[in-house]
Amino acid sequence: MPLIWAAISAHGFGHAAQVVPVLNAMGRRVPGLRAVLRTTVPLSFFRDRLTIPFDIQAGEQDVGCVQHGPLSIDVPATWQALHQFHLTWEQRLQTEVTAIRGARPDLILADTPYLAIEAGATAEIPTVALMNFTWDLVLSAFPAPPAIPHEALLQTIRQAYAHATLALRITPAPIVSNFHRIFDIDPIVEPASPARERLATCLRLAPGERAVLIGFGGIPLTSLPFESLRTLSGYRFLVDVSVPPDTHRFVSIHSLPLSFKELLASVDLIVTKPGYGTVVEAVALQIPVVYVRRDTFVDEQPLVEFLHRHGRGVELAQQDFAAGRWLAALEAAAALPFPPAPPPRMDGAVDAAERLLPFFKHA
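Below the sequence we write its predicted structure tokens.
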């Protein structure tokens, strides 16, 4: 029975959001395809999204970044965590190799843990990197503490990536040069169908009142400037944090009978960081976005450029976000015209599936 081993970074949900449509597209082409998900992304993320049979195996695939909420990266702690991760590199590698050999997959798909790529090469299993960035690109932008052998760590990461059979770079993405064979593919997106009337009924929106989804991906916000936002009449904010009592201005997304993807497809505005899944889905759905940069993350600029070229976006400075000075950005985003050209082709999942098919003798 055909089997694909999907190693997925758990730094947020963006990597999982890229992998799932590809696995679904593969399932439509490879009869009987199953997946092993090697990740610490929670099962709940995949349950209503992934359409092929799968097993999930918890396994730390990379460090990602240490963050205090979705907007603040703790650079020294990130380097320290990476250093600790690599102190047990050989043990981690052997654990992955043993697990892969036990499963005997036809292919390893890595988005984008370099550990899985090195393990796949050691186990002599074809390995494909699926990515819109690599971890060495992210880390090389961060100043390292003097005690951390950062160049050696980066070199280990780059050498591991270089073992990939091939790489699929998802649009939009920065320049990546670690791989011997690389193919560019379209954006990967699998949005839900809009349910605007249903959402308006659930929220009991008044005429002209706008629903705003505050969604920062898999690294949740710890707080919001509720007192300042409470004064913004004409807006209802859908949030993933505890809601203050005695106000209808804020609604917990967990109290609504729609999934997060359905909410994203059905609101009037989105407030977020420039993360892959949210930005690309917003462009596909043509929903206005107010975005707050992290500034130091390598994929932000390509995503921001993509949003402004093909979608509707307005930047909100971090200090204005924290202080609740949102009104001007919300009004500006809502007033943006639709782009003159239709959204670009967004068949990256199909593109990826076509590249992966030759690895399956059963197809």
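The mean pLDDT is 94.
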